[in-house]
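I hope you will forgive my troubling you with a question about protein structure. The record follows directly beneath this note:
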Amino acid sequence: MSSNRNIRSWFASGSPWVWLCAGAVAASLVAVFGLLALIAVRGLSFFWPSDLVEVEYRERDGQIVQLVGEIRDREEVPAERLRSAGVAVPEGAQEITRYLFKIGNRDVYGLDFRTLVAHDIVKQDRPANLVVMERREWGDLFGQVSALKEAGQVIAEGEAAWRELTARLTRAEQLYAEIRSIEKGEIGAINHGMERLRLRQRGLELEDALTEAAKAELAAERAELDQRYSGLQQRLGSLYRDIRRDSVVMEVAGGRRVEVDMSKVVRVFQPNAMSVWDKSQHYAAKLWEFVSDEPREANTEGGIFPAIFGTVMMVIIMSIFVTPFGVVAALYLREYAKQGPLTRLIRIAVNNLAGVPSIVYGVFGLGFFVYFLGGNLDQLFYPEALPSPTFGTPGILWSSLTLAILTLPVVIVATEEGLARVPRSVREGSLALGATKAETLWRVVLPMASPALMTGLILAVARAAGEVAPLMLVGVVKLAPSLPLDDNFPYLHLDRKFMHLGFHIFDVGFQSPNVEAARPLVYATALLLVVVIIALNLTAVAIRNRLREKYRTLES
């Protein structure tokens, strides 16, 4: 009897529910951190230089072929499944080891990966002179350096070619960086200037103000830009001749030789001959390339800096829009609106807006912001650019406004709760000292409610940074030709399309023609998106904590 009484009193005390909640929280944390650990391991391990393996493999017809590549994955497959697929397996075997083997050399073989069955591998070795060549096109090339050419003439072979290759590659990298700087920087500025001249001339024509003096002025400016462009073209021609002077001949598996222009080479290394320190340096360089470089090879190679930049910039612009609108709406509902059925209905509508599917906001943004608002802006302020749209097309401005509307209910609710927590005595004290209601709200109430406002902004940033569906309709693209921020007036180009980490994950994971090559990048990009969201949230949390400490004495 006493034991039953103790159990009943234990349940009545609420302790079981406390432990149940604690267990649920612990399980949730384990699941979250486990998922993050899985993403980190799968994503970050991709950048470590794996050893190259040279294998002799027996094909189904009995022919022995030579392959060189990386073992990317392995799995144990039931033998019965392989038998049903027509693969010969040893008698009595229950499970067969199968390897995912990256053979690279897509321009030679037409594919990047092959599946190898363990019992058909006749021989495998790891020669130290095997080379990985990362290229700007066609992916990685695996093989051995056979010769180095200058202006079509062989200048070194074998080991001498490998030693000379490093110096030649450094020279090619410097020339390539100079070419990119001219093409994207100086020539990009000239193209921007030519377009502005064209629009200015078209504007004068529409206003019937294209006088002879205006024509002469435009012609003089255009001639100056043409002269600069001609000089840069000559310089580019010289640089292209210099960078294409050298080429390297690689001998791939099977004895075939492939000649690669040095301008197409990103880096070369011998992973089997590298020490742990060398591999660590290579790993750090690859990580830095991933976060600082532009993508290439249909987003399956290179970096994702434009996506990082676009995500952060969109979130900042969205925060600039959503904060004042959310605060004003919350102030009106809490401080000015008459508390009645209409106000309660508005609050219900605001709360329900938080549950509307995000794609609905995308459709609204496309119809209202892009077609209606942007189209009218083009008619009013950019008639010279028509029929080509300026703001009447998806861009980062409309994406930010769409996400601002999507996250507005969160900011309104959080700010209103913060305003409700400000003691009434503080308001009355301010009014008693002669302040108006507006001054009281601006100088006393809002600062004390600012931590709650920052909480709403944190939630808004967390949701907006990970949204993808609405952005696909209002501004995000697979590959943006230029960033929304550059050196050309007006510097911040809100009409431009942009890249986004969330859409990048979708594109690489589901739209890539090379799924196996893209899979590690999906994990790496997902991890980076989480890191970006955490960094943005930590910044907002730090600001909120400072505000909370500043006004803690007033609250007490």
In short: The CA atoms of residues 118 and 411 lie 58 Å apart. The chain has three domains: 53-126, 143-273, 305-478+485-555. Residues 305-478+485-555 form a domain with the MetI-like fold fold (CATH 1.10.3720.10). The chain is about 60% helix and 15% strand.
